[in-house]
Amino acid sequence: MGNRAVKLIQPFAGWRPRPGSAPRVAAPPYDVLSSAEARQRVAGNPDSFLHVSKAEINLDPALAPDDDRVYQTARERFEQMRRTGLLVQDATPCLYIYRLAVGQREQVGVVVAASVAAYRDNRIRKHELTRPDKENDRTRLAEALLAHSGPVFLIHRQTAELDALVARIRQSAPPDEAFQADDGVHHSLWVVRDPGQIESLVTLFEEQPRLYIADGHHRSAAAARICVTRPAADRFLAVSFPENQLKILDYNRVVRDLNGLTVPAFLHEVGRRFHLTASVEAVRPDRAHSFGLYVAGQWYRLELAPEYRDGTDAVTRLDVALLDRHLLQPVLAIHDLRRDQRIDFVGGIRGMAALEALVDSGKMAAAFSPVSHPVGRIAGRGRCRPDHAPQIHLV
Asked: Model pTM?
């Protein structure tokens, strides 16, 4: 079970947008938008947190995204937000109830300071490997800011007691912040200042056997790295949702080239292990061993031949692992998903049109859409998260 002397979660004094400014400050997660898209999004809005989380948008587009000046600019913009009062820190350590709603669907979670020690002890469990370049980027940003500015998305087991306490807190007062983002998602935040309620929430989370990372592996890994040299930085910003409220979204792959193959030659090689069927519509698979492929302006449905569907364990039988083993490696010579710069990943929240746009523009040569696995199974690189992260900063 790990070190039970270390609490899974703690309260913290967050930095929040001053009243009325949250709609202008709130921003999508840093990896949802490209730098070009982020520049367009912040046009005319100097308050957007994208000026911090993607600070390269304030600099020459020709500058490398990992240039030292990017992190220096992020620090300067973050300090400016605090100095001018755009961000205001809570006077005491708090926890936060965070609700997202679209139509009749809602997710209600608790924003916490999660324990790095619990992460190392595997009480906060990960399910995917990280890419060194992205882990380095999040480490450098956190060190520049001396803060964690993007929450790790955690899953906890639903319990009646925790649900009831969260409901009582929500019913006891109106939210401290509420607004609708431009994507139609309505965000609400309750600040939990009462020591008794904080203690009860910490205790109920401590009864959880473990928490699971749904999204934010690079941010949590960065926090663990920072803690090695700064032992006092023993926690990271997270928001935890009960598993019964979550919906797994796909996490698609895009590749920059076809390994020297022409499109017909590439499709021929794919056809050695997959059955290909052209489709007039975007292919979002709804069953195991089925994949979507978009190349040269055409969608295809791929069905992995039965003789290639076996795996030695639950992980190697996942569709994402089968795609790697029977297409990415043998056809495209992509053997290291962590380090190979020829492959990238696109969150399903961006939709299938984003895959088409990347390929049609020539930035990518092909796109793949694996099936999303349901909650309760290892989800490959599936993601489930809101488009806008709550801008609460752990310092």
From this structure: 0.76
